[in-house]
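Q: Given only this backbone (455 positions), what sequence would you predict?
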């Protein structure tokens, strides 16, 4: 098979599918933390490996990376750079422009980049650990190129295959690419069938049963009958609706201030929205606790059939970033059943689907590797901890573009009342400013500095 055909087939997949295929084949290739440094398109190509490191003398040298860029002669290259130093750039806009001219497809750095706006302006994809302003000049040099190197625990050889998208970066050994493609295409087809079943109302506990995944290994399709049930038979209770309604018109900053004033710890640390959501999501918590997988592994997602309409699924995966517990099938099913949103103390995947569906998802990050056979559900509707906050079943969750707060159910009315007062005061301050008052005058008159203080 020619290289162009292989790259076309790889381009038709995404990192989550390729990661799953590697898992089935017991191959390492999925990396964590190498993400797009601007809103980059997906890139697929062959690795040109470059190792960099600290400069230990003052002898003038050729700028790192430039010899490799100049030597590129084909249009299938992705530069793969290891050895980055925290805070020191090993990529910038000039080399992005040069790479663009050479028709290089993109750059993956186990390190940081600077001048990222310049890369964005010319449409050159850069993936890595982050951005900086500090130059590599007189700090870093190119050590070698075209040799095997380590990228976040994965060994990458010259000419290995690379795929990177919004979920991260995956490397595929060149001598296993056909196996990975064939299995990935089976997984993609199977998952498309699973999404169709979910959309048709089939219970997700059956759709995502382990036997469905194991069937991929055997290259067979189950003949599951799709039921016609739509919506969610589990409706929100009158009590839940009443408490949720109390938070109408509020957002997480206002609720956070109310929690501070009442001395209630509820601000969830290090869990942020997947998108800059314009709406506030409020609902009672359906709590889920994940634990490391047993032998044989247990279920990863059957709990969702028990989640009521309007609930927010709150998942304690112990902050794990090495495997995901939420993906596109769960997103699709949750949306169809009227589940309000999901909060994960851990990472998610299939973010393109989540964003397209506008499903409210709040996590500690994103990655493509599945949690199947790595974690399993350890308990539901029990006390859990997420982001340094204790969450009890049916506590009230408030989540928006600013983050997530948890309101103890037995204090919900009190918190909502205080938050409403704070919001009204702040609205009055904004009105005074609009009518010409200074911010100091408005804050003094309305007691702004005391709003969140404990009474």
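A: Predicted residues:
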């Amino acid at each position: 098979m020619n290289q162009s055909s292989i790259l076309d087939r790889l381009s038709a997949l995404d990192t989550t599918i390729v990661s799953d295929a590697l898992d089935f084949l017991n191959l390492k290739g999925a990396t964590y933390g190498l993400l797009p440094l601007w809103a980059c398109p997906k890139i697929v190509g062959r690795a040109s490996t470059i190792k960099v490191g600290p400069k230990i003398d003052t002898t003038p040298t050729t700028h790192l990376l430039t010899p490799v860029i100049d030597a590129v002669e084909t249009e299938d290259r992705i530069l793969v750079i290891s050895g980055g130093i925290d805070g020191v750039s090993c990529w910038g806009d000039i080399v992005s422009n040069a790479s663009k001219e050479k028709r290089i497809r993109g750059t993956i750095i186990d390190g940081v980049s600077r001048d990222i706006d310049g890369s964005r302006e010319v449409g050159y994809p850069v993936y890595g650990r982050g951005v900086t302003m500090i130059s590599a000049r007189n700090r870093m040099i190119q050590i070698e190129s075209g040799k095997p190197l380590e990228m976040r625990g994965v060994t990458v050889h010259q000419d290995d295959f690379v795929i990177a998208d919004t979920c991260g970066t995956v490397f595929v050994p060149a001598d296993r690419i056909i196996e990975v493609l064939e299995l990935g295409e089976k997984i993609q087809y199977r998952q498309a069938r699973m999404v169709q079943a979910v959309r048709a109302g089939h219970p997700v506990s059956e759709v995502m049963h382990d036997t469905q995944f194991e069937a991929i290994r055997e290259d067979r399709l189950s003949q599951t009958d799709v039921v016609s049930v739509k919506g969610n038979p589990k409706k929100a209770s009158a009590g839940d609706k009443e408490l949720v309604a109390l938070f109408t018109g509020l957002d997480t900053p206002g609720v956070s201030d109310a929690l501070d004033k009442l001395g209630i710890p509820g601000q969830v640390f290090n869990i942020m929205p997947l998108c800059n959501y314009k709406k506030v999501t409020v609902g009672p918590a359906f709590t889920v606790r994940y634990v490391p997988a047993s032998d044989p592994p247990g279920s990863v997602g059957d709990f969702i059939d028990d989640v009521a309409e309007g609930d927010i699924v709150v998942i304690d995966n112990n902050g794990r970033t090495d495997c995901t517990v939420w993906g596109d099938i769960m997103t699709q099913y949750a949306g169809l059943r009227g589940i309000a949103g999901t909060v994960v103390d851990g990472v998610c995947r299939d973010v393109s689907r989540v964003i397209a569906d506008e499903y409210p998802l709040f996590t500690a990050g994103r990655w493509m590797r599945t949690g199947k056979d790595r974690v399993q559900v350890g308990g539901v509707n029990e006390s859990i901890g997420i982001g340094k906050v204790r969450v009890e079943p049916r506590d009230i969750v408030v989540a928006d573009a600013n983050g997530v707060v948890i309101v103890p159910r037995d204090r919900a009315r009190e918190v909502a009342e205080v938050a409403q007062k704070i919001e009204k005061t702040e609205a009055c301050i904004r009105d005074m400013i609009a009518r010409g008052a200074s911010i100091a005058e408005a804050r003094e008159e309305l007691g702004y500095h005391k709003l969140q203080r404990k009474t």
